[in-house]
Amino acid sequence: MNRQGMVAGSGRTICPHCHGAGYLPEVVPLDQLRAACRANGYPISWDNRVREDAAATLLGIEAKTLRNWRYALDPRTPAFVKRNGRAMYELAAIAAALG
């Protein structure tokens, strides 16, 4: 598996929710999401995560909606981790949520 979450040579992306137990088809290429982040000036971490405002923009929703989903443990919430009190969302999970 490479850094983008792709299994080498398979054309499949590892499921961001179960982290490998299942596979999801890649709907939105991660390169497109990275390009959108760069175009809007959103930083991307070394492990392909973005902050809440960037994730909400990529998903086409308000940041408050994404935050409410996270607090309510809504299944629509892309995979995230908390770093220094901020939610960081995986680009692969955002791509899966767009599908």
Question: How would you describe this protein?
Answer:
The structure is a single chain. The longest helix is centred in the middle third of the chain and has 11 residues, at 30-40. The protein has helices at 30-40, 52-59, 63-71, 91-98, and strands at 13-14, 23-24, 49-51, 80-83, 86-90. It has a single domain (27-98), classed as Orthogonal Bundle (Multidrug-efflux Transporter Regulator, Chain: A, Domain 2), CATH 1.10.1660. It is an alpha+beta fold and 99 residues long. The strands form 2 sheets. It has a 3-stranded antiparallel beta sheet. Strands 1-2 form a two-stranded antiparallel ribbon. The protein contains 4 helices and 5 strands.
Integer tally of domains = 1
* Adjacency order of strands in the biggest sheet: 3-5-4
For the termini, the CA-CA separation is 21 Å
Helix coverage percent: 25-40%
CATH architecture: Orthogonal Bundle
Cα Rg: 13 Å
Mean pLDDT: 80
Structural class: alpha+beta
The dominant shape is globular
Number of helices: 4
Point out poorly predicted stretches.
1-10
Q: H/E order of the elements?
A: EEHEHHEEH
Topology:
Blueprint lengths: L12 E2 L8 E2 L5 H11 L8 E3 H8 L3 H9 L8 E4 L2 E5 H8 L1
Antiparallel strand pairs: 1-2, 3-5, 4-5
Quick take:
With about 100 residues, the protein is of the alpha+beta class. It is about 35% helix and about 15% strand. It has a single domain (about 25-99), classed as Orthogonal Bundle (Multidrug-efflux Transporter Regulator, Chain: A, Domain 2), CATH 1.10.1660.
